[in-house]
Every structure is written in C-alpha cells, then in structure tokens.
Amino acid sequence: MKTIIRASLLQGLVLWAPVAGLSFTASLVPVAAQAAGPSAQIERLNQALLGIMKQGSAVPFPQRYQTLAPVVQQVLDLPLLLKNSVGLKWNSLTPEQQSQLLDVFTRFTVARYVSEFSSFDGQSFRVSPNPVASGSDQVVQSQIVSDGTANRIDYLMRNDGGQWKVVDVLLDGSISQVAVTRSDFRTLLAAGPDNLLDKLRQKISDLSGGTM
C-alpha cells in the first residue's frame, strides 16, 4: 500500500492522521517512559491505530469505530480543532448548532481514521521523544515510513487541564491542516451550517460503507 498525503478534507483526508494505510510498528521511545508527555499521546494514538489495522475488514466498521473513538477523543482537542476550522463564523452559530457540529465532526474524524487505517502492510511510525517548544505549546516531530519513503508529520500539542492534546497537524512540518480545513469549511458554510452538517454526515456514511 502506498503512502498518500492529501490536502483537502473533501478528498477523504484523515485530517488528524493524514497518511493512509499506516501502522505503528516502531518508535523512538516506549510509551510507558513518557506516560504524561505530548509524545506519549501520539504513541497512544498510534498503538490504537495498529489495533484496528490488525483487525482490518474482518471486524465490522462500527466495532472498529467504537474501539478507536475513546482514544481519538483523549488525544485530539476536537472542540478546539472544530472551532479553529470553522473560524470567524463560529461565534455566529447558536449553541445548538455548535453542539451539533461538534457531534458530527467528532464522528467524522473517527470514521476517517477507521476508513484510512484499515489494513497493515509493514509501514511504521517514528515519534521523537523530545518535543520542540513553540511558545507554551509543544511540537511532536514524527515520520511515517512506507516502502522506504519517510513523510514528516508534526503534531502541535497544547496542555489542556494537565493533558496534552493535538491542536493541529503539520504536513511536511509546515502545512497546517486546520488552515486547509478552514478553507473547505468556508466553502460549505457559505450555504449555511446545515449544509456543512449534511456534507459531513454523508461523508460518514460513505466512509463506513453505509453502516453509520
């Protein structure tokens, strides 16, 4: 399986794990060594992905979804990711619309992970044990290796009440996935928040083969 990095949300990108068909098979540090640190959070996500990849299509999509969802919600700051992806229009939405969007965005994000990480073909993640400070945030540097080719994927992490969470993903160390998604959302929101909700719900159905 080849490594594919896509830029657009609407092309089926796994926004917060942007490379298809990869597994966690190697890292620079064991998870237990950094149980509370930002690198350990990425390790936790990678190990959960490895689990569903080994299950593959032999396990129904909804079951793999239920296995992965708690980890995604622990590692990703989904409310902040959504707010930053919507941008300035966020404050114009009603609390009910914000709540609906967060629910669908969460399900959409997990569904994309399950869809993209659906098989194991010997790929590996390499996670640096030494995050780089970016103001009060930390950047976890990583590589995803497939067929001998390494792709750089960095995670911008922020401390949220004592727990480090992903607030952006940087492709090639510089391309912000929040910025890319904001561009996609701006187009969809031009027709109103219900349009964005409908598109995300349809995408969830497509990714899950109609099972969700």
Automatic annotation (TrEMBL):
Pfam family name, one: MlaC
Official protein name in the record: Toluene transport system Ttg2D protein
